[in-house]
Specification:
By secondary structure, the chain is α+β, with helices and mostly antiparallel strands. It is built from three helices and eight strands, in the order βααβββββββα. It has helices at 28-43, 48-53, 126-134, and strands at 6-12, 56-57, 60-67, 76-83, 90-99, 102-112, 114-115, 120-121.
């Protein structure tokens, strides 16, 4: 059975992320997921910047966002990022965003490991898979 690895990241909603209704605009949630995902990779010992230097990128190929309650300017949010399955050619994450311990947003992304030089999907690099399995 696969163990689900989760990490949390805190952010504060910036003024530039709000709309005319003072809500954090819906388009920001994919950016919040990215913040959580990059932090998740760092926690297992990897830098996305370093992966790109090695010509590996992770484009998002699928996403889902469920809005429960709004976030406002200066709200402190906690993004919980969870790996759903062992990675292969793709990697899937679940996101839960909390404000004052209340779930306000849920999401999902699927990304593929991609060789930036030949524009082809690749298997999850062994060092990343090993770090996940050994965590």
């Amino acid at each position: 059975m696969h163990k689900k690895i989760s990490f949390s990241t805190s952010i504060i909603v910036r003024y530039c992320e709000t709309d005319a209704m003072s809500y954090s605009h819906h388009s920001n949630y994919l950016k919040y997921y990215e913040v959580g995902r990059l932090n998740w990779l760092k926690k297992i010992g990897f830098s996305y910047f370093k992966m790109e230097k090695n010509n590996i990128i992770l484009p998002v190929v699928e996403s889902k966002i469920i809005f429960r309650k709004p976030a406002y300017f200066e709200d402190k949010l906690k993004i919980k990022t969870t790996l759903l399955n062992p990675p292969s050619y793709s990697i899937e994450f679940q996101y839960e965003i909390f404000k004052d311990q209340i779930l306000i947003n849920e999401g999902y992304t699927k990304l593929i490991f991609f060789n930036k030089i030949n524009n082809k999907p690749i298997r999850c690099p062994k060092d990343i898979a090993d770090s996940i399995n050994n965590f």
